[in-house]
Amino acid sequence: MNLRTPNELLVEIKEATKEGEIALAKRLGISQPTVNRILRGQPSCSSKALLAIQRVHAEVTQAAANAAPVVQSASAEAA
Question: What's the pTM value of the predicted model, to 2 decimals?
Answer without folding.
Answer: 0.79
